[in-house]
Amino acid sequence: MLSSVATLTRYCLVLLLLVGADELLSAPQTGRLYRLFILDSQQGSPYMDVRLAMLQSLEQYGYVEGKNLQLYLHTAGNDINKGAAILKTEAGKDYDVYYMGGTTATVAAKQVMYGGTQSVVFASPTDPVGIGVIDGFDIPPKSNFTGVSYPVPVKSRFRFIRELMPDVKRIGLIYADMPQSHSYNAWIKAMLKDDPQFKDLEVIFRRVPLVKGEEGDRRMAEMALPLIKELDSQVDLFMKPHDQLGARRQFAELVHAYSSKPLIGLVKNDVMQEWGAMAAIFPSHRSMGQQAAIMIRDLFEGKPIKRIFPQWPARFGYAVDLQKARQFGITVPVGLLQLAGENILK
């Protein structure tokens, strides 16, 4: 009995030592200044939301701006060439980690930094596999890039639509001529072709040219207005595209103002800020930021990037505007209301 107690005591002591050692390894080095370079694709949501969540999480891990963390923030104005020019200037400055917010920034980083020695963490690009910076998720990175993608998987989004509106047959999707929409639209087309549960659906695609710069999303929304009017009599609903046109408010407001059909949003604000959508399923910006922060923390602490696997967003959210649903004669299933929780407008 005494022998067993002694063995258990020694085991507990060893466990405590291991836990203590792990805490030491996971704490910032005393007196060390960590340098984090940030390139966001554009100002505002979703990039700002994800970045702020990432920085809040880093602060919880002990990396505090102005204390032991120095930030270098740039934006690309949704212009890959501008982003690449910034990175060509900054790539050799030996930051501890390079963080890329969104598709435009990640594509620019691919052009300038792929295969180099710098560690690059992306957050919220639509298709990092299609961009070519990773081969897949939950597998080791093939080069010096890892991170968190943005989209809700196509099937999850269409199951949401089907549950909300079981009789829907035709969906209008107006998109911007951007890499992230090309990827997402290709996934939609492949799903409609190959998945029997969606074989009765038709998606009508319409494209507007890409307009770069911070005002580009407003100008693209204005160019989409004739297409909204054209499709209104042809479709049962509109869904926002998976690009910058879809991430901002102007397009949602125009669909709501000039269409007689409901809109399925891309982000939480589409419903909760009353931009115009009836409902939305969306990735959690906070979750993406938290996931990216863990990767950056691990890199600060010396973990090889090849051991930090790329990830999908860990959590999704739901939002429903019940007043708009009633206007369109739609009864929202109780299960969706439960998933939406507090994200319900009555």
What would your notes on this structure say?
- The chain has 346 residues and is α/β, with parallel strands linked by helices.
- 45% of the residues lie in helices and 17% in strands.
- The chain contains 14 helices and twelve strands.
- The strands form two sheets. The chain has a seven-stranded mixed β-sheet with strand order 7-6-8-9-10-11-12, with helices on both faces.
- Helix 2 links the parallel strand 1 (34-40) and strand 2 (69-75).
- The longest helix has 24 residues, at 2-25.
- Mean pLDDT is 91; it is low at 1-25.
Q: Choose one word for the global shape.
A: globular
Structural class: alpha/beta
H and E string: HEHEHEHEHEHEHEHEHHEHEHEHHE
How many whole angstroms does the radius of gyration measure? 23 Å
State mean pLDDT (0 to 100 scale).
91
Largest sheet: 7 strands, mixed
Give the strand tally. 12
Q: Number of DSSP helices?
A: 14
Distance between the termini: 65 Å
Task: Please state roughly what percent of the residues sit in beta strands, choosing from under 5%, 5-15%, 15-25%, 25-35%, 35-45% or over 45%.
Answer: 15-25%
Low-confidence stretches: 1-25
The percent of residues in helical segments reads 40-55%
The spatial strand order of the largest sheet comes to 7-6-8-9-10-11-12
